[in-house]
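User: Thanks for the earlier help. One more: cysteine synthase. Can you show the sequence and predicted structure together?

Assistant: Of course, both are below.
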Amino acid sequence: MAPARTAGAAVVATVFVSLALSYFICDRRTKSPSNNTQSPSSNKKSSNKKKKGLVDAIGNTPLIRINSLSDATGCEILGKCEFLNPGGSVKDRVAVKIIEEALSSGQLCPGGIVTEGSAGSTAISLATVAPAYGCKCHVVIPDDAAIEKSQIIEALGATVERVRPVSITHKDHFVNIAKRRASEANEFASKHRRKSHLTGGNIEPVNGYRSDGESQNSVFPIDCQGGFFADQFENLANFRAHYEGTGPEIWEQTNGNLDAFVAAAGTGGTLAGVSSFLQEKNPNIKCFLVDPPGSGLFNKVTRGVMYTKQEAEGRRLKNPFDTITEGIGINRITKNFMMAKLDGAFQGSDMEAVEMARFLLKNDGLFLGSSSAMNCVGAVRLAQAIGPGHTIVTILCDSGMRHLSKFYNPQYLSQLGLTPKAHGLEFLG
């Protein structure tokens, strides 16, 4: 832990500077940046203009000073409030970019079904924005994800398959199933178009059956215009969403005055897009990964190999991501993660994430999800490593609202030996 600030005039001066900086960076009605700080995105939205629908309201989220962590470390620790997007998470940006690029390329058309394998947040975002493009959504989700995520997705009008967690190499991994569903939707649409052409019109379903006696597939509606697999892990639209949006926003909101960025990775899109943009603007900005238990990314970054003790022969777990944090940690290198520009990595534990979430709720009123809490663990670790007087930015991915049944459930945490007990930040000592 960084030493506490000394009393006296230094405290007054430091607090004054901190408050002034906080006010400056959190004022979203900033003037247009100079030419060397402009975003590469051609779709940049002004916060002073009226938003045209839900999609236009995504992005331009506030950057806030996390007061408790800043005061404790002597660094300015800033959080990008992605939980304020319409769909409630950073994945809204990715959902929009994936769908818009797919529509533009012709891989998806209005009336089509977007399929995805997701632990929750990307699925919720796709289900949120797909109707704005005249599309539907079908999600395959591991059944150990918080149940409220499935409930939210279904409430948004998407169809949901909950499946058992298995290795990505298994044909029934939730991502692989989602990919198959897109192919099945294309086959279904093609078959229906052929029959409609032969009969000279639409084949109307009656009591769940079409006139040719074939049962209607419950997954796909009769007017399905094909399927598109979003493929958030490998689709570089994910990276581009953050390279063109999140990264430039952070740069502008800090006026380029930041020293480091830290975040966890699931698909790797956020970490890659933001780190790539920031280091292009200023190579001196250091970018770091924070990795949860069971993930191999920490070892990949620090040692160049994908290996964890949990992956040793005879010790591999049924679910290799043995962590309470959802949506982060992985044991393979995705195309998105390969784009990241990293200077190092930190490891965080489940206990640290749980304690951090309660600490931020108590001291800052921030009700954050598990990945956001882990990001804040990483921010403090980074502050401890580089010392006071630096500005560090991280991502507040989503709120705690979709983590009630597990991450914020006292009984569930007790069963895992994760009951929070800390009064301060001693758990990171």
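User: Great, one quick takeaway?

Assistant: The two ends are 5 Å apart (CA to CA).
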